[in-house]
Amino acid sequence: MKHRHPRGRDVTGILLLDKPSGMTSNTALQAAKRLFRARKAGHTGSLDPLATGLLPVCFGEATKLSGFLLEADKSYRATIRLGVRTTTGDSEGEVIHQGDTTGIDRARIEQVAASFRGELQQVPPMHSAIKQNGVPLYKLAHQGIEVERQPRAVTIHRLDVLSVSGDEVEIAVDCSKGTYIRVLADEIGEMLGCGGHICALRRTGVGAFDSSHMITLDALQELAQTGDDAALDGFLVSMESALTQWPDVRLPKDVAYFLVRGQPVFVPHAPPQGLVRIYTREDRFLGVGRILDDGRVAPKRLVNQ
């Protein structure tokens, strides 16, 4: 009897992919996985097909940390076209309203934008991947079905008007997870009294990652054709670089022995509370831990390097 060999390479790390417009996040993920010939891969939160920009792709053991990136704050640059409202809140939807933009100047736009900063309630759009009774809302929307959605609390940390050119407004947004920039554009247009929709959207940041080290699928394809796996792997960043917002604790080998077997351990001078990155004293990354009330560190998500 022949034994099946697992397909793909054991690759571990995070790829900061610059997703192209017109491609779903899953298609981009599968393309990257194929180019790296990676055994295991996952992304960290979908980008709309229309959107471009930062899509962190986790390979191997890094997939265990993808949930933390999913929870992270995000940054975007977007262009809103005023005067036209669509069914989807972006340029792929059908036009449902056309409004007059006469007299709407930059000062008025900035005044309205300022009112959206801070915590607000946002109703997810029908054209989203949120599920209702196990069915994604966008599938219902394609059938012409609209269902009631519960508003969600989101936080807009920053919303700056970068430029105004005719009916197009470019904005920069830093926000909490779960924020829909399409909904934000629609509501800004509504408050201005003319309607609006997103005509361009680019994600520029996810948690600790920004757009400075992104690479396109085309560039990866070119590199993959050379057959140089080491050059490809050179574009991966370490999985612990996704967690730089948390302090680290370093364990002696005998203490680490118990932690990796699931037991909370005592660490002198541990941070007072919250999540921590756990290393051995030899700088081997073990994963994410949680500080307990009694000061011990309990394993939360361990990796195997």
Summarize the structure in words.
The protein has 305 residues and is α+β, with helices and mostly antiparallel strands. Helix content is 21%, strand content 35%. The chain is built from eight helices and 20 strands. Strands 1, 2, 3, 4, 7, 10, 11, 12, 13, 14 and 15 form an eleven-stranded mixed beta sheet that branches. The protein has a five-stranded mixed beta sheet with strand order 16-18-19-20-17. A two-stranded antiparallel sheet has the order 5-6. A hairpin with a 4-residue loop joins strand 19 and strand 20 (296-302). Helix 1 (25-36) packs parallel to helix 6 (217-224). The chain is globular and about 70 Å long.
Key terms for this structure?
35% strand, alpha+beta, disordered N terminus, Pseudouridine synthase, 21% helix, 305 residues, 8 helices, eleven-stranded mixed sheet
Question: Nutshell version of this structure?
Answer:
This protein has about 300 residues and is of the alpha+beta class. It has helices spanning about 25-35, 65-70, 105-115, 135-140, 180-190, 215-225, 230-235, 255-260; strands spanning about 15-20, 40-45, 50-60, 75-80, 85, 95-100, 120, 130, 135, 150-165, 170-175, 195-205, 210, 215, 235, 250, 265, 275-280, 285-290, 295-300.
Helix content: 10-25%
Q: At the first level of CATH, what is the class of the largest domain?
A: Alpha Beta
What letter string, H or E per element, gives the SSE order?
EHEEHEEEHEEEHEEHEEEHHEEHEEEE
Estimated structural class = alpha+beta
- Integer-rounded radius of gyration: 22 Å
Low-confidence stretches: 1-5
Give the number of DSSP strands.
20
How many helices does DSSP assign? Answer: 8
What's the CATH topology name of the largest domain? Pseudouridine synthase
Main sheet: strands, sense, barrel: 11 strands, mixed
**Span between termini:** 31 Å
In CATH, the architecture of the largest domain is 2-Layer Sandwich
CATH superfamily of the largest domain: Pseudouridine synthase
Into how many domains do the coordinates divide? Answer: 3
Mean pLDDT: 91
From the spread of the alpha carbons, the general shape counts as globular
Percent in strands: 35-45%
